[in-house]
């Protein structure tokens, strides 16, 4: 490529870089949800066909978002370079800008102020592009000036992009205040201390309570929505006797409870790690609904997050007296972490997250399943999704080699909300043997197990199955996660040296 062509391609790239970063900065300053670059990513996620979504989840796991954003950046910058090389490249630059505007306007949460960031991005991109376009033949001095200018714009763009990350708007301070308020607040219901024998972490299981930093994370949000507690409110409306609007103070004025709950994702494959446990602090959702007065026929609680994601929860489940559904504000002794829904999320023990655990919650509508369809229902997942009784083998690890002598197998089992009654383990297709269970905490949480075997050298296969407290055995029937959760008995192959 001649030097002139390289400079031309660079002009395209720098123009689009300037457009993207100015869009980021303006969005951060005036309307956090309106970044055109992220809106394009959101649009890709929302309109991805099911096979692509599943492929991304199984291939990249929770790294799917950085992978998507990097891929998008590469494609956009390639187009930008092409624009620089084309005679009428400005048309392509404008087209990219219009795509950003369209993505922002198409977002479920769009409002008029959201237009400012993508429009500024388009204008900046076109201005830089047109400003730096020069006739193909240039002398050395003019080219040096041009390159210097381009470099300056590139540096400014990176600075603007970095700056957009620093615009906090008092969000971190708001979280700190909530953490302090929760520490001081009285509880009407305390979660009993976790007994020492509640896990077999020494044998390879997770710790009973998952540290917040290790808690699994699943959502379709490319940017964590930043809502200060002081700016938050929740509308509870629809088929209710009394419509309510609650501020964060209103919520904390209600009785606060602590509940230890195991959450899991419907996408968790047999043996997967999309499962974690925390002690949540919050307000009892059932009593809130009773205060609002649920009207007959309202079989769905339709929850919406600030970024427009939705979930539909069966009303009858939340109204069960012992279910323990929460509007949670705290997690393991601090305010909800940003990526787990600060300031307020829903948690319903025993239901997969996609039908119950809306993060960054702002709206609850009592309605019917016929009237409104939630995000994952539109994408082929089931309407009702109780968590299936499941178990997992954590030790030995698959294909591990363990020393000769006694072998300790260990793992977890769960069956919310009734709890685990028994876990059985068998080796190499032999008879089922009852495993040792950890001290029970409550039916809403997982339970750990161990079983010891004396094994000859060679290859072995261990299998496990759980039985809930009511006597129902975990099904052997293999099923994929879609549409309502994976099933089947887990098995692990390992070698004794
Ligand atoms: N706003 C919002 N809430 C959401 C989701 C989402 O994509 N957006 N995903 C749900 C799913 S599928 C699961 S499994 C849980 C996961 O919660 P966690 O990330 O705190 O573990 O959040 C649920 N709440
Ligand atoms: Mo999920």
The biggest beta sheet reads: 5 strands, mixed
Distance between the termini: 59 Å
The CATH superfamily of the largest domain is known as Oxidoreductase, molybdopterin-binding domain
What portion of residues belong to β-strands?
A: 15-25%
The CATH architecture name of the largest domain reads: Alpha-Beta Complex
Uncertain runs:
none
Could you give the count of β-strands?
A: 19
- Global morphology: globular
Q: Supply the number of helical segments.
A: 11
The CATH topology of the largest domain comes to: Sulfite Oxidase, Chain A, domain 2
What is the alpha-carbon Rg in Å?
27 Å
Helix content: 25-40%
User: Which assembly state applies to the chains in this document?
Assistant: single chain
Keywords: Membrane, Transmembrane, Transmembrane helix
GO biological process, one term: sulfur compound metabolic process
Protein name: DMSO/TMAO reductase YedYZ, molybdopterin-dependent catalytic subunit
Domain Oxidoreductase molybdopterin-binding: 222-374
């Amino acid at each position: 490529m001649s030097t002139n062509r390289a400079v031309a391609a660079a002009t395209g790239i720098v123009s689009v870089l300037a457009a993207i970063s100015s869009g980021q900065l303006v969005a951060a300053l005036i309307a956090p949800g309106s970044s055109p670059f992220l809106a394009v990513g959101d649009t890709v996620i929302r309109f991805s066909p099911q096979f692509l979504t599943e492929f991304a989840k199984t291939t990249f796991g929770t790294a799917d978002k950085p992978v998507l954003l990097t891929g998008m950046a590469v494609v956009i910058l390639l187009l930008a370079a092409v624009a620089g090389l084309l005679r009428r490249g400005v048309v392509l630059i404008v087209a990219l800008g219009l795509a950003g505007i369209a993505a922002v306007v198409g977002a479920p949460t769009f409002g008029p102020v959201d237009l400012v960031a993508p429009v500024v991005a388009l204008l900046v991109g076109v201005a830089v592009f047109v400003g730096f376009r020069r006739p193909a033949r240039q002398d050395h001095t003019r080219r040096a000036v041009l390159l210097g200018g381009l470099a300056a714009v590139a540096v400014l763009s990176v600075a603007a992009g970095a700056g957009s990350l620093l615009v906090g708007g008092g969000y971190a301070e708001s979280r700190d205040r909530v953490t302090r308020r929760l520490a001081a607040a009285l509880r009407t219901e305390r979660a009993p201390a976790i007994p020492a024998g509640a896990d077999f972490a020494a044998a390879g299981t997770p710790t009973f309570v998952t540290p917040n930093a290790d808690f699994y994370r699943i959502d379709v949000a490319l940017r964590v929505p930043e809502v200060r507690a002081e700016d938050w409110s929740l509308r509870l409306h629809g088929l209710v006797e009394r419509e309510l609007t609650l501020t964060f103070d209103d919520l904390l004025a209600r009785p606060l409870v602590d509940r230890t709950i195991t959450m899991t994702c419907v996408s968790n494959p047999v043996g997967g790690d999309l499962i974690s446990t925390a002690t949540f602090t919050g307000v009892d959702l059932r009593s809130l609904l009773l205060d609002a007065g649920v009207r007959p026929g309202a079989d769905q609680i339709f929850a919406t997050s600030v970024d427009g994601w939705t979930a539909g929860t069966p009303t009858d489940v939340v109204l069960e007296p012992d279910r323990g559904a929460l509007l949670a504000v705290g997690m393991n002794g601090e305010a909800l972490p940003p990526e787990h829904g600060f300031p307020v999320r829903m948690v319903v023990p025993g239901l997969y997250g996609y039908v119950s655990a809306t993060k960054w919650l702002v709206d609850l509508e009592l309605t019917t399943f016929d009237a409104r369809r939630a995000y994952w229902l539109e994408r082929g997942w089931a309407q009702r999704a109780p968590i299936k009784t499941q178990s997992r083998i954590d030790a030995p690890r698959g294909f591990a080699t363990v020393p000769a002598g006694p072998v300790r197998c260990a793992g977890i089992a769960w069956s919310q909300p009734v709890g685990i009654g028994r876990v059985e383990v068998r080796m190499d297709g032999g008879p089922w043997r009852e495993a040792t269970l950890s001290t029970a905490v409550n039916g809403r949480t997982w339970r750990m197990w161990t079983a010891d075997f004396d094994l000859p050298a060679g290859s072995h296969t261990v299998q496990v199955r759980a039985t809930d407290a009511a006597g129902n055995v975990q099904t052997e029937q293999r099923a994929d996660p879609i549409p309502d959760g994976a099933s089947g008995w887990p098995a692990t192959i390992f070698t004794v040296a």
